[in-house]
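name: query_chain
kind: protein
chains: 1
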Amino acid sequence: MSLTSTARETALFAGGLVLGAANTVRHNRQGYVDPRPFSADDVDRTIGHAVEIVDLLTEGGEISWPGLRVLEIGPGSDLTTGVVMLSRGAASYHAVDLFDNRWQAAEGLYDRLNQALGAAVRPEDLSFTQTAFPRLPDLAGTFDLIVSNACLEHVADVASLLGRLRDFAAPGCRMVHHIDGRTHMRWFCDADPLNILRYPEVIYRRLLDFPGAPNRLRASDYRRLALAAGWSGEILAVQRASEGYVARTRVARRFRPYEDLDVLTFTLVASVTGDQ
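structure:
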């Protein structure tokens, strides 16, 4: 590695550490209340974002929505994805999250979305449960489809959550989870997407961890944990890093054996296996 490359790697390590520690302080004080990179007051962008998410899940999981009882994990600032799913024929929609950020939804958001979709989804059709992860003690019911977008990477105990979700799975239930394995700091997300993997566990836990912090699991980890929890599973890569970037990025020792570091964003598609 050249001197210039070494200096760059050192700067990225130090910069990510400083900004990450500042994020930790902020999130520990106010909670994880800023799940999207744009203002909730931007109604048009919020609507477009919801449609994009449902399109992404639909394509990755080859989902046919009519008649499905849907559970969404971690919907974020609003339940607009639920409106889209119901407009496409889902029989019911329920969301569950550790935080209740629905107050961030702009006034008139759902009316505008219904108009855009030509739908008539009522507020009471969008049910929600705030509860603790991974046991989800306040959740009840059974579902045909369990989905999430940019959520599972924020769950500390993914193994227990995937196991618990089997308790809510109807026969033949499927899961489709889109996962963002990049660092979540805004500039680093594009310039140094593996920044979050640079730090040894002791540094990460002491300086960069907070409720909702990325868990640093890789695509192969999610598939392995799904299989262990009683789900079949496959990974569909959506965004990959270049070979050159992966080769020159100095990650912590625990991540060096991984063969899928280039897989940055991906979709886990799984079906429940065995008897319920």
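note: The first helix runs from residue 3 to 30.
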